[in-house]
Amino acid sequence: MRHRVAGRRLSRTREHRLAMRRNLVASLFEHETISTTIEKAKEVKGFAEKLITLAKKGTLSARRRAIAILGNRDIVNYEDGKAIKKGTIIGKLFSELGPRYLDRPGGYTRIIRLSLRRLGDNSQLVLLQLIGQDESSKKQTKAATKKGARKKVEEAVEVEEIAEAEEITETDNQAGKGD
């Protein structure tokens, strides 16, 4: 019986589960969205949210605890075949992600189910994303499209008014010539 035993085994040893969880969370913080299976995403979600809550504190002890829990992997981009170091996972967590969620009481991640299934075992795939950055840009684009739509409607009304005024003047001119 598995009474009062929390967590999923995921067909892995304890050490393998810990390494997989650390790697998935580090990739999530680096890329801000990852594709994985539903079981792994549900297992990793709470771990990632606890680390973001730790980053919101921003203290030295919180940073040291995050390094002990997650490790301090480098963020590397490859440009022209050369590896260029862009920073570290803990640096990004405490400098970008922690301040981003200061006013949010929780729920920093979301799981979006994909219609795709993995070819090997037909497992359900999901996107695990950090909430926040894309939503502010969506709000701005929605506001811009609303403003743009209003401007287009106003311009269309103005064009129609101008066209009507020109038609009236043309009919007046033709009526004046006919007299």
Low-pLDDT runs of 5+ residues are none
Mean pLDDT: 86
Query: How many angstroms separate the termini?
Result: 104 Å
**Secondary structural class:** alpha+beta
Number of strands: 5
Strand content: 15-25%
Percent range of helical residues: 55-70%
Shape: elongated
The CATH C-level name of the largest domain is Alpha Beta
What is the assembly state of the chains in this entry? single chain
CATH architecture of the largest domain: Alpha-Beta Complex
CATH topology of the largest domain: 50s Ribosomal Protein L17, Chain: A
Task: Output the strand order for the largest sheet.
Answer: 1-5-4
Give the topology.
Layout: H1 14-31, E1 33-37, H2 38-57, H3 60-70, E2 74-79, E3 82-88, H4 89-100, E4 109-117, E5 124-130, H5 133-178
Antiparallel strand pairs: 1-5, 2-3, 4-5
Helix pairs in contact: 1-2, 2-3, 2-4
Q: How does this structure look, described?
A:
The protein has 179 residues and is α+β, with helices and mostly antiparallel strands. It folds into two domains: 14-131, 50s Ribosomal Protein L17, Chain: A (Alpha-Beta Complex), CATH 3.90.1030.10; 132-179. Helices cover 60% and strands 19% of the residues. Strand 2 (74-79) and strand 3 form a beta hairpin. Helix 1 (14-31) packs across helix 2. The radius of gyration is 28 Å and the shape is elongated. It starts with 13 loop residues before the first helix and ends with a helix.
